[in-house]
Write a structure and sequence with these properties.
alpha/beta; two-stranded antiparallel sheet; about 100 residues; single chain; 6 strands
């Protein structure tokens, strides 16, 4: 009855949000390759740290960064499931077992 997830530090979400923009052509990622790599490493480290508590690799983030985060993690973390708060139904219980931080 409980879905265990990782969450993301709001300051880290803000940094990711500042690193992309939506244009008429679609999503434009402005983060440097080093910043993208560091973000993926931080997520990977949090997943490893909490792997015993997680049934699936699920990261729960705000809707504003979900598309960009998926784009920058898809190659390095293909098994990562990224959900945003509005994709969780009211009858689904979530438990945050850890947080991805800078």
């Amino acid at each position: 009855g409980v879905v265990r997830v990782l969450t993301m530090d709001p300051a880290m979400e803000d940094r990711i949000a500042a690193g992309f923009e939506l244009t008429e052509r679609g999503l434009n990622i402005r983060m440097s390759p080093a910043a993208i790599k560091q973000t993926c490493v931080q997520i990977s480290n949090a997943l490893k740290k909490h792997e015993q508590q997680l049934e699936h690799s699920i990261l729960l983030v705000s809707p504003r960064i979900r598309p960009a985060l998926r784009r920058i993690t898809v190659d390095r973390l293909p098994d990562l499931r990224i959900l945003c708060h509005n994709e969780i139904t009211r009858d689904t219980n979530t438990e945050a077992v850890g947080m991805v931080t800078d």
